[in-house]
Amino acid sequence: MSVPRMLTGDRPTGRLHLGHYVGSIANRVRLHQRYESFFIIADLHMLTTRNRREDIDQVSGNAREMVTDILAAGVDPDRATFYLQSAIPEVGDLNTLLQNLVTVPRLERVPSLKDMARDAGKEEMPYGLLGYPVLQAADILCVKGEVVPVGRDNAAHVEVTREIARRFNHLYGPVFPVPELIQADTPSLVGTDGAAKMSKSRGNTIALSDDPATVRRKVRGMYTDPNRVRADVPGSVEGNPVFAYHEVFNSDRDEIADLARRYRAGQVGDVEVKERLVVALERFLAPIRERRAEIEADRGLVDRLIVEGTERTRQVVRHTLVEVRRAMGLTGAYQQVRRRAERSRRRTDAPA
């Protein structure tokens, strides 16, 4: 009995942060032992918003950092296949075939694409960004992914994949599984500025690899209740990023309840609430830092994982593409032309 496959991953745009952990990494750590797990380093997706040569030059370094972060968070390297998207050209071939199974109006209804364009400073939607969900469908379907753990922002993308898989199977036969979405238990994490979700492009993140001094500095600078000018003024817990982080990362539930009660009553200052958060984050991040140090001490480990995983994944994708072309009849069309050409050549070469 075959083990079902999971596909997940990130764009190599820098180190991963607490928002990534809440949105997808926690699910990956929990699920990867149950599935044959593929982790994509999605550098082609990165090009939709970052395509300068200097951005591309950073891919290899960012890829190593990304894989290191995922391993440090708890993913077992023996149970995960990491691969570099751009090193598998067959994914582009599949993308070309799948893009005819979805309409432009359908893609324009994917809500996160406009947000991605805005965050990247794009005045108009690039063609590649509009087709982002189709390329993502190619990523998932090329390895016949059956499970996709996603954050809330990517759920609409994966729904496009499900529609494309069903459309392909209806037209050409049952080649693809229709992947299941597994969403994170926690909504997207607000950034330290309190203005938007945690995002590298906004500079409002706490990285999984941040050292204790950096974590303390970022927490001390976090947005809280703007109407609270002194510690003895009752404050709001709801919508307060510091308390939102406590809820996610502080395992001491009694402490959270006590801080919330005193905060609402004007009996505790922001400084103490933030210091307690620093302690909670250190409990969470210290083991991750320790695992990261062990991974980095094994020089070449991450590079080997990426190369071996890419080579293995390419074999899987090539097999899928053969199935797709055969189901669509594309292989048969060329074979018919080639047979006629061979017959013509034999007649031409035959002695008079």
UniProtKB/TrEMBL annotation:
Source organism per UniProt: Micromonospora profundi
Gene Ontology BP, a term: tryptophanyl-tRNA aminoacylation
Function: Catalyzes the attachment of tryptophan to tRNA(Trp).
Keywords linked to the UniProt accession: Aminoacyl-tRNA synthetase, ATP-binding, Cytoplasm, Ligase, Nucleotide-binding, Protein biosynthesis
Record-listed ATP binding positions: 11-13, 19-20, 151-153, 189, 197-201
GO molecular function: ATP binding; tryptophan-tRNA ligase activity
Taxonomic lineage from the root: Bacteria, Bacillati, Actinomycetota, Actinomycetes, Micromonosporales
Pfam families listed in its UniProt record: tRNA-synt_1b
HAMAP family: Trp_tRNA_synth_B
Oligomeric and partner information: Homodimer.
Motif ('HIGH' region): 12-20
Classification via PANTHER family: TRYPTOPHAN--TRNA LIGASE, MITOCHONDRIAL (PTHR43766)
This protein's GO CC annotations: cytosol
Localization in the cell: Cytoplasm
Keyword Endoplasmic reticulum: no
Alphabetical list of SUPFAM superfamilies matching this protein: Nucleotidylyl transferase
Signal peptide: none
Similarity comment: family membership: Belongs to the class-I aminoacyl-tRNA synthetase family.
Position of sequence motif 'KMSKS' region: 197-201
EC numbers: 6.1.1.2
Recorded catalytic activity of this chain's protein: tRNA(Trp) + L-tryptophan + ATP = L-tryptophyl-tRNA(Trp) + AMP + diphosphate + H(+)
Record protein name field: Tryptophan--tRNA ligase
Source species, domain of life: Bacteria
